[in-house]
Amino acid sequence: MGEFRLSDYSSDFLTLSLLLLIGSAFTVPWVEVSVSSLRDFVYYLILPWVVVIPFHEGLHALVARLFGARVRFGVTTFGKLIVAPYTAVETPLTARRFIAVTLAPLSLSLIALALAWLLRSDFWALVYIFNTAGMAGDFIVTLALLGLSPDTEVVDRGEALVSSSGTLEPYPRCVSKALRVVLLAVLLILIARARVEVVVENSP
What we know:
globular; alpha+beta; 204 residues
């Protein structure tokens, strides 16, 4: 019997989220967001999350229900800083089906990306970026499930996955260090390429 807790990978979750945030932003390079009013703040930084959270968790639940599973919703924390909603699948599913449930919100990213490009919409671009970054935990869980036999039963207890056999380990611990090194390298590159413009106005 194996057990997996995403909370044990909280630093990896944050690191991968930032990498996905940066990487997805580069796929919509024309996006420019300027927040100069309360309306802009709500439209660009609040409303995208209003779309992402219910649809992201709803897609998990929809696919689980299609497999005949019972689901419940909750909120958990990683460390002291990260608060995240989750969908718990209370009915045992095979690892193969659990992967389908876990990756279901990827469809939201694909749809939002298509809308962003078709409409040249900053709003849908942000929905795509935020949802993709929010899938960090889903990708880590998927890696853990891929190590099991496809027909192994998995039970979701909300904050932990338990398999009937096999080991639920997404990757060796050295990968955690590699992720942090990659993030540091990406941030250094971004800082090196950043342009800082200083405008000085002369008084008449």
